[in-house]
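note to self — DONT lose this again. spent like an hour looking for the file last time. sequence + predicted structure for the chain T wanted, 392 res
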Amino acid sequence: MHKMDLLELQERLQNAVSEAFPESCWVRAEINQLSVRNGHCYMELVQKDPDSHNLVAKAQAVVWSNVFLFLKPFFESSTGMPLNAGLQVLLKVEPRMHPLYGLSLNVSDVDPSFTLGGVELERRKTLERLEKEGIIDMNLQLPFPRIPRCLAVISSDKAAGYQDFANHLSQSGYAFRVRLFQALMQGSGASASIIDAMDKVAAAGSGRDGGYDVLLILRGGGAVTDLHCFDDYSLAANIAQFPIPVITGIGHFRDVHIADRVAHMALKTPTAAADFLIDCLAAEDEELEQTGRRIERAMQNRFNQEEIYLSHVLKDLKGAVRWLVGQHHHNLDLLEERVVRNNPLTILQKGYSITVYQGRAVREVSVLRPGEQVKVLLADGSFLSTVIETEK
């Protein structure tokens, strides 16, 4: 058996690797770890068993600074996301064995379309899972409040998007009640951080603070390079099953993420979300104004109708009064005529006389006795007379 020292072994391995890979090759792998030091990018690449997800292969790779300077912006501009751990990548590598540093893969190129394909495949699997579980449209089916005034917001207080949102609401003139629940909005821990904030919103909504009308998940305020967390299944499932309507304003214009798909409403930016909420209250304000105007017109119409009715009643009343007065005048005329006609003076003026005995008018001759004195009334005076004889 041939004996050799370590250097000889490493040099023989170096030669074997060089002979086995005279040219670069493309390798599919998952980035398990990634760090950048002195401009160089160091990665740990792995491959997992598709069923058990156990590691079946692992290797170290490096992108030297002169290559990483161009490869990083190329990948980010092509995919819309940074080169990070957890991504499936297709890398062009040169396998190299160094006696001192061991086996390493020198990366010279990357195929962004492979990563996008892997991301899209994961997105489709996540959407299919959500649909199969019957929760994909649960939040969408919730009734949206007519006046969304009490708002729970998940974002970062330092995010420009949140500041724009808050300023927009404060300048609207409407009395929104807004409470911020802090969370990471990008990176590997963003999904868990947002879910934790959602749990706090749910707890606060059932406590002494009272319920919230709407939950807003806002990002915005910077370059869209790390939105992978908004395609996470756990986050999407929590949004879909959240007990109040969820509005997303992630701040992207090109893509629609799974978080947008399961939310009640997806708006492009935090400012757009603020505009929508302001428009809701403005529409309600306009509706109230229109209702007030309708009530005012109805009252005015009713007043005019009542005024017309009263004028007719008054006119009828005046006519009735005039008729009654006329009737009374007519009756008084008749009475006056009757009084005049029955006035004793009127009778006396016609040549008649009235005989008075003991202060009473004599109507029967039987009350008189011969020798008694009576008074006879004429139209122009009276005289005394003595009864000589009575006869019937």
